[in-house]
Write a structure and sequence with these properties.
This protein is α/β, with parallel strands linked by helices and about 250 residues long. The chain has a single domain, classed as Rossmann fold, CATH 3.40.50. Helices cover about 50% and strands about 15% of the residues. The protein has a seven-stranded parallel sheet, sandwiched between helices. A two-stranded parallel sheet has the order 7-8. The longest helix has 29 residues. It is globular, with a radius of gyration of 17 Å. The N and C termini lie far apart (about 45 Å).
Length: about 250
């Protein structure tokens, strides 16, 4: 049985991915920062799918957390076949008003932890000459985002980094894909104190599409026809509308 590691798997796209992999008979390793929510999710899913789920409470927004998580997983003798870097947070507001501490944690989680987990698990995937990595970015990775400047920038970083290591990993039999969802009905907006926009894509639909394309080794995975269509819209136009939407959010 192959094992998938999913970070940020207690809600939203992460939890939907967990459920999809369980349906496909994968062994799941679930990582989240909230111990109580993690235990609740474990009990819920084990009861529903009758499969054991391995859970690790780890705040991946902290320095050194990636290395600590990797160490714990290795001590437990688990071999990871698929790594999904889904955990991430976002901040909305003008650049000069964003809280320093929250912004630093966001950059740690969204970028540095992603890089470090990829680096750690790529080594053993290269040794086995097989493995898959799915890094979750955003449609925000395709253009700058006024009033979400640092958040969009972190997702651009994830996309660029993932595309680069994809080229490196291919010669070692490892696949690296990037998921770029658009507006999705998750807790993301609740955390920022905003309402979920109308027309947000259901998390389970995003997860279903992501799974299919990951298995087909699609380089950049964009769920939703409209989201794919928007990729051809000029960047300046998209920035203009992002600025209006986010400034009024």
């Amino acid at each position: 049985m192959k094992t998938v590691l999913i970070t940020g798997g207690t809600s939203g796209i992460g939890k939907a991915l967990v459920q999809h992999f369980l349906k496909e008979d994968y062994q799941v390793v679930l990582v989240a920062s909230n111990q109580e929510k993690l235990a609740k999710t474990k009990d819920e899913l084990e009861d529903r799918y009758r499969e054991k789920i391995y859970v690790y409470a780890q705040d991946l927004a902290q320095i050194g957390a990636a290395q600590e998580l990797y160490k714990r997983i290795k001590e437990d003798g688990l071999e990871i076949n698929i790594l999904i870097n889904n955990a991430g947070i976002g901040l909305i507001g003008s650049a000069e008003n964003i809280d320093f501490g929250k912004e630093e944690q966001m950059m740690q989680l969204n970028m540095i932890t992603v890089v470090q987990l990829c680096r750690l698990f790529l080594v053993e995937m290269y040794e086995r000459k097989e493995g898959k990595i799915l890094n979750v970015a955003s449609t925000g990775a395709f253009q700058p985002g006024p009033y979400t400047a640092s958040y969009y920038a972190t997702k651009s970083f994830v996309l660029s980094y993932s595309r680069a290591i994809r080229r490196e990993a291919a010669k070692n039999g490892v696949q690296v894909c990037t998921l770029c969802p658009g507006t999705t009905d998750t807790e993301f907006f609740h955390r920022t104190g905003k309402k979920t926009p109308a027309g947000a894509m259901p998390a389970d639909k995003v997860a279903e599409y992501a799974y299919k394309k990951l298995m087909k080794n699609k380089e950049i995975i964009v769920p939703g026809f409209l989201n794919r269509l928007l990729r051809v819209v000029p960047v300046r136009i998209k920035m203009f509308f992002v600025a209006i939407i986010k400034n009024n959010a």
